[in-house]
Amino acid sequence: MGYQPFYQDVDMILKTLQAKCEPLGIKKIKKQKEDYLELVFFAKDIKQWNELFTGLLGPALKPAGQKPSALDLNLTREFRGIRSNQTLFAGKIENAAVLAMFWPWDDRQHVTLKLSARIKTDNGKE
Question: Taking a C-beta distance cutoff of 8 angstroms, is the pair 11, 105 a contact?
Answer without folding.
Answer: no
